[in-house]
Amino acid sequence: MSRADEKKRIVVIGAGQAAAQLAISLRQGGHVGEILVIGDEPHLPYQRPPLSKKFLSERPQPETLFLRPESFWRDLRVDMVLGVPVGTVNLRNQIVSLTDGCEFAYDELVFATGTRASALPLPGATLENVFSLRAIADVHRLRPALDAAERIVIVGGGYIGLEVAAVLRSEGQAATVVEAEDRVLKRVTAPAVSEFFDTLHRERGVDIRLGARLAAITGDTLATGVALADGKSLAADVVLLATGARANDELAQAAGLACNDGVVVDEFTRSSISGIYAVGDCSRLPSRRYRRWLRLESVQNAIEQAKAAAAVLLGEPAAYDPVPWFWSDQYDIKLQIAGLSAGHTHCDVVGEPTAARFSAEYRSDGRLIAVDAVNDARAHMLARRRIAQETEMTDAVALEGAA
Asked: Most exposed: 83, 196, 305, 391, by fewest CB within 10 Å?
């Protein structure tokens, strides 16, 4: 990297895990120029996975989630502008404008804007006592409502929905999970894993309604229940929507970057416009390993892709094509996922689900592409290495679908 490059001002839009890692990696790599991180939340960069787990159940102060204290960022010479969203990005003049009128020039720009809860286009979705769970502020709104509620309906039987159900039952509160598919976790796991978690929750008193499509959330000002497509209804004091997330890419799209439920980047985190990059949950990246475009929502991807972006900005580019991994804590059970099982043609269950220690191994064309490990950390770590070896692409391959 030239001395001129070292002094460039790098502006990061977004103040989550990816933004934090990017700033750290830039300094560790020798960047001496200004680093400015802009976040629309009033908090320093923090961990999000505990929001539906310990942070929801233990009610600690927000500072317990912070990745680093304020002094760390000050010593690292990373400037933080928090609590004000970015309104526009002027590519011609290379200026980021905040909604309060403040403007910041940049030499290179990184989008790390994350995701938000998917909106449900249904009657009643904006009523009071209807919540989503993506930020500290969401927990601060949701927790008092949960404490006062007797009937809680969770819409969505994915990771977040089941994690919140586990918290509620551990506290002795009733919980009903409404899932449109015919099994929980259907989009991400095999039937054996779904069956295990379905049984786990039912045995602990969760009322799980499968194949139950939501027609409306009922009530005038406050939500009083949910109406299902089959004509049945469920009373509710609180409704939690846990139906997935979508990328915060509107700002990038308005600036002229190519987007498709995420800012489209190449294997070096570069967007469609020179000098602009995207990392973390908001980016859509090419995977030769999985032969398709991916948008990954995980701590692992946020950290590793941020490191890859820092390397590019430091003049040391290396292609990024990860084996993703994820985890979910429910009661005393830890589910660890390595790889991506979508498109698998065969699945083997290793171990005994009734012993609460087993794995599901997914293959496609003979290649191991993913492993779900239940209470088996060793199997998870071995799986990450095995998948990396078996999915490595020695030749370029065409990617399925559009970016």
From this structure: 83
